[in-house]
Amino acid sequence: MSKNIKSIILAAGKGTRMKSDTSKVLHKIFNKELLGYVIDAVNDTGLAEENYIIVGHQAEAVEKYVSENYKNAKCRLQSPQLGTGHAAYQAYEDLKGFTGGVLILCGDTPLLTSETLKDFINEHEKSGAALTVMSAIFEDPTNYGRIIRDENGNLKAIIEEKDASPAQKKIKEVNTGVYLINWAEVSDAFLNLDSNNAQNEYYLTDIVKWTINKGLKAQSYILKNNEESYGINSKLHLAQATKVLKDRVLEKLMSEGVTIVDPDTTYISPETEIEADTEIYPCTYIEGKNKIGKHCKIGPFARIRGGVELGDFVKIGNFVEIKKSKIKDHTNVSHLSYIGDSSLGSNVNIGAGTITANYNHITKEKFNTVIENNASTGSNTVIVAPAHIGENASIGAGSVISKDVEQNALALTRAPLKIFKDWFNKIKK
Ligand code: UD1
Ligand code: MG
């Protein structure tokens, strides 16, 4: 595998069944957009020079997302939306003169992996085909385009469900909607598409017949794990895909030596790295990009929101939320705390109910908290950021810390304790 590729990702469709104001491809799993999963899978092959995202429905929002997150992706508007072939054609001018392979995919398939794409690209290049389509064998092929083969088993065409004969409808090999074409050989197909079909659309699938009629080789690559072709069309699909993705992550982590006490109630994002011998207790939710060391204990009922780095032997206990923070070895945040935009040294003890108050609601600014090695906070401490708590410093329970605390010091804010003797009997009278 050597040649670079470019991709066209179709994302102009409406996604009516999502019943949402948000574009289908901007729906998220683990706080990452569906479209992001697809672009990342393509980029992670290490072969993608450039990606063209075809936008239509909610074009502005999708373009904003793409331009803010991907340097090698450009959006092309499809308006009106006349079918998948017409959609891919929107990148035709951009690709003029390109001599490599063009990968065409849909923006709503977050379970497709870069490993599969690499294998697909590799097979295509080895075979000398001008076009390879990714197919899958489905027990229930309803609604998919069917893969039609000749008597020798060679790919002949793709027929949509609505155009298929009763015999063709029985075929279980379906089109997953992923293609790789040698652009120089096949791009003319886009100039020859028509909409003479049951849906009056320009079908991308018709490029298969065109390629074969030109005397070029077209073939199908059968997907090994059907799950990967799963397209999201509804909120139910979104939940099902989340589950598949999380199970995939948990299985990988367990195979690498991470203990997951209850996989059913544990959610960990694909972008979280965890080292061996760390234990994750039930009802823990970890999203975004995080790095967690070895021998940590996390949960039950912990939430890690991304941008978190934990060293080794760190303890994150029940009802603790951690966001965008670094925590070094042997530090405990055992109960009921919020640590955000913070940097904690090693061997720090965070008392129950400690809050780093990092957000100014009026100015919308966020501030950092630094807590040095060996410091401790008492229960119910509020640290109003920005704040620096020095090495070995102690904070008394119930304190509101609104300035820096120097090393080795004790800081506490506490109203004097008042005791009213015999209170019960006075009130009773
Ligand atoms: C398409 C394939 C079908 C395949 C199935 C796999 C065609 C004609 N059919 O069918 O063989 O089995 O995908 O899921 O290609 N889109 C646009 N612009 C348009 C139309 C669609 O960008 O004008 C995008 C959609 O947003 C979506 C993708 O293309 O991401 C597929 O469109 P969809 O309408 O779902 O195609 P299917 O009918 O499912
Ligand atoms: Mg579809």
Based on the model shown, name its key terms.
binds uridine-diphosphate-N-acetylglucosamine; 429 residues; binds magnesium ion; Spore Coat Polysaccharide Biosynthesis Protein SpsA, Chain A; UDP N-Acetylglucosamine Acyltransferase, domain 1; 37 strands; 30% strand; 10 helices; 7-stranded mixed β-sheet; single chain; alpha/beta; 9-stranded parallel β-sheet; 2 domains
Write structural notes for this entry.
The protein has 429 residues and is α/β, with parallel strands linked by helices. The chain has two domains: 5-229, Alpha-Beta Complex (Spore Coat Polysaccharide Biosynthesis Protein SpsA, Chain A); 235-411, UDP N-Acetylglucosamine Acyltransferase, domain 1. The protein is 21% helix and 30% strand. The protein is built from ten helices and 37 strands. It has a nine-stranded parallel β-sheet with strand order 12-15-18-21-24-27-32-35-37, covered by helices on one side. The longest helix is centred in the middle third of the chain and has 21 residues, at 235-255. The model has no long low-confidence stretch (mean pLDDT 97). Bound molecules: uridine-diphosphate-N-acetylglucosamine (UD1) and magnesium ion (MG). Uridine-diphosphate-N-acetylglucosamine binds at residues 10-13, 54, 56, 78, 81-84, 86-87, 106-108, 144-145, 158, 160, 174-177, 203-205, 231.
